[in-house]
Amino acid sequence: MIITIVNRRQACGVQLYLTIEQGVEEYFMTVRLKDWPEWRMTRHKGRFYRNSLILILLIVSIPGLITGIVMYQLVVGRMENEFNRMHQSQIENRARNVDDQLAYLEMNLSHWAFEPRFGNALRNLDFIYYFKETQEIVTTLYVLQGSHPLIQSVQLYLEEPEPILFDREYTELTDSSLPAAYQRYLTMGNHVYWTDWRPGSKKETNTGVAAYQDKGLNTDQEQSLIKDQEKSLNTAQRNPLVLVHKIPGESIHPFGALIVTLDNEKISSLLKTLTPYDDGVTFLMDERGRTLTSGDSGNNRPHAAFEQQLKEEMNLHKDSRSFLFRYENQTYSVSYGTLDRIDSAWTYVSAAPLDAVTSPVKLVSQIIVAASAGSLILGLLLSWFASRQIYSPVARMLHLLMPVRSDRDSDQETVGTKWDEFELLEQQWHELTSRSVSAHRQLQEQLPHLRNSFMLQLIQGHMYAYSEEDLHQRMSHLGFELEDKQFLLVQMYFTGYDQLQGRFGSQDKGLVTFAAVNIIQEVARAYFSQVSVMNFHNLSSAMLIIAPASESIKAQTLVWAEELVDVIARTLKLKVTLMVSRPVNALLELPGQLVEMEQAAAYRRVEEGSQILDLEDEQCFRNDEGASYPLGLEREIIQALRLVNLSEAEQALITFMSEITGAGRTEFQVHQMMMQLLGSVQHMMLQTGVTPYTLFGGSNMYEQLSAIREPAQMREWMVQDVFLPYIQEMHSRSQEPLKQVVERTMRYIEQHYASDVSLEICADIEQMTPYALSKAFKQVSGSNFIDYVTRIRMDAAKQLLRETTMRINDVAAAVGYQHSYFNRIFKKQEGITPSQYREQWF
After folding, report:
1. Which of the residues 427, 451, 605, 721 has an alpha carbon 20 to 30 A from that of 650?
2. Which runs of E-coded beta strand occur in 608-700?
3. Strands 530-535 and 575-580
């Protein structure tokens, strides 16, 4: 017998399927060679491994040959397209990094350009006399230079009061050519702009002319300025990028400029990240197609011809950001995009050779083809050599497995005696027989769990695809006797769990249900020969009774139910609502019986005590008493909630629950009345301007209420999840006017803390008494009025101590304190004096 156990997770938990099939011969012929005696394997491993090697060569060589050919013919072309796509994606990500670096430089320079130290005060400052301010400017330029790794140098040029250049030191430009050269930074470009022109460079002369044309100069003036600049020009072919910000930053008539020169080597290293391989080409160009800088840090620019042809090719692919470019028998993947700078738009271009990716694949594919072809030839030779000896062990195997041998088997018998592996198979046959007995014993141990899992699936309708005969057969395999039997389904609900909170916690429902199921099994053994109890782990369970068709199973079940109710009440202190279905003769009718009992559970009476309900007895579900709705108590609850009185609403709810759970009331009736109460409460909320959907976070309150069975839990849910959120919302709304008053007072304090700010002044502004304002301020902000004023003044004082060189007396006056009192209150708040605070900070 082959036993297959498959684990599946269904809605009811982990389900176990058991499939029993015929085929003893196949089971026992599952041989594991590792269990064979080692001394016998050593004797014959030569022949065995030789045949295995032949098969392995044949199997491996053919797929390898096919793989190599496919890789060589198809994969290379597809890799080029895929690499081009990946190259585009990678370059866009890396280009964003370059753009972020340059944008950070622009933002950082703009921040410094608007600093007060670079303001109009520099226009008339005597830098020799005020040497400290001069030193601070030089120090600031050092700080700005070290603020970013791409910066090579930072200069400050001032046109007034006289041409001055701050570089690593203070320098007066006495040479007439230098002021004219640096003056160009003030006349070209916008307030903030990029350029690759530097004093002492011939490059970008045309750019300078264009800048002068923007300034409205005539041609003679332009030529004069250009000649003045060329006096100090050098012959360097590659100039670094320069970022210029005219100062003051807020002025439309600048008199100086902050000049940030970038490091060519680092810019080149940054651009190299746009090319995955070292032999690629990367460069930046401006809107007119001029190359600003490239990933090649040398001055010779060996890729100039390549760049020029690549630019021409880009003009042909303006609609595509990525294309393949052929240059000198080599294919490049080209990706380009735009970097929007503060005054212009730059274009980055990256060209990566595809041979760096495809050449290894071509080599590997060629090696695979060659190796696979060799293996195929070798396998064919070895297989031809060993083919004559293959049939003899096959004949011996047929001799062992088939009861009738053919003549050919007899002829090959002598040959077969040379092989002893099949003797080992005979030994394994007997060994596996003993193992099958052990497996059968383990199956018997797991059989109860398999039964429970199968029954859970059966009654919950998961076996609807099986026929009645299939179900009978499977249950017979599980040990049930179903010949001439009838089936009765019983469902049990355990109530009164809230009264056990002293013995069990809120998380112990599964444990209590497990104990109840064990009691059910013990009591059922004395009444029925075949039962199967199912645990739902939620204070409910079910039991299937299998009895002969001739017995009166219903009467016996009712007697058992009374005893079970008594035992559970004495043992677990729980009440039991027990429902008995009608007897059926088909297993496929059981899921319908379970659905009927779940629907009938709504008609159980909610008064204290256990109940036994027979689905065939209509008296159990008939309620002769009218289900009158306590409308007056509902009005009391609504009125208490309107008055935002939680205690009165809760007390009225207790009276309401006591009224609707009186004698004879069913669970269905209680649910309906609670639903009506919930609807009335939500209608009242809408009348008071509160939206229930928003208040409850979009939750379906009716669905939550319908899932609760115990009246005590219904009452607790109504108070905690319905009443309490509404009360809290109304309290928060009642405090909104006071909150606005306190917020206006806090803004007034923040604006006038340096003057005389008192509680009486703020109360007069808000037209309130000082006591009312003080109470509201404490209630809304959480702190006293004086403490808040003190904290605002201390924060302002600490800022002045940190960021200025004002005297302590001036700081005290600036925040609204006298000097002596300021020292005392500062030390009380911070633990140190103002002077000590300033020393520690610096």
Report:
1. 605
2. 611-614
3. unpaired
CA distances to 199, 201, 299, 615 from 235, rounded to whole Å, are: 12, 7, 11, 107
Tell which residue, 292, 288, 332, has the closest CA to residue 310.
Answer: 332
Rg for the chain (alpha carbons), in Å?
A: 47
Contacts 24+ apart (CB under 8 A), 822-830: 822/797, 825/790, 825/794, 826/794, 826/797, 829/790, 829/794, 830/794, 830/798
Closest to 157 measured CA to CA, from 142, 136, 178:
178
**Residues linked to residue 256 through DSSP beta bridges, in sequence order:** 158, 247
**20: amino acid identity, one letter:** I
Kindly report whether the global pTM for this prediction surpasses the value 0.85: no
Distances (CA, A) of 564 to 456, 499, 518, 525, 577: 22, 20, 11, 12, 11
Tens digit of pLDDT for each residue in 564-594?
999 988 888 888 888 898 899 998 888 888 8
Over residues 147-202, the pLDDT tens digits come to: 888 888 888 888 877 788 887 777 777 776 777 778 788 888 788 888 887 776 55
Report residue 92 CA to chain centroid gap.
25
Separation between Cα atoms, residue 307 and residue 333, nearest integer Å: 14
Residues in the chain: 842
How far apart, in whole angstroms, are the C-alpha atoms of residue 783 and residue 788?
7
505 and 602 Cβ atoms separated by less than 8 Å: no
Cα 745 from Cα 773, distance rounded (Å): 9
The answer to whether 458 and 587 have CB atoms below 8 angstroms apart is: yes
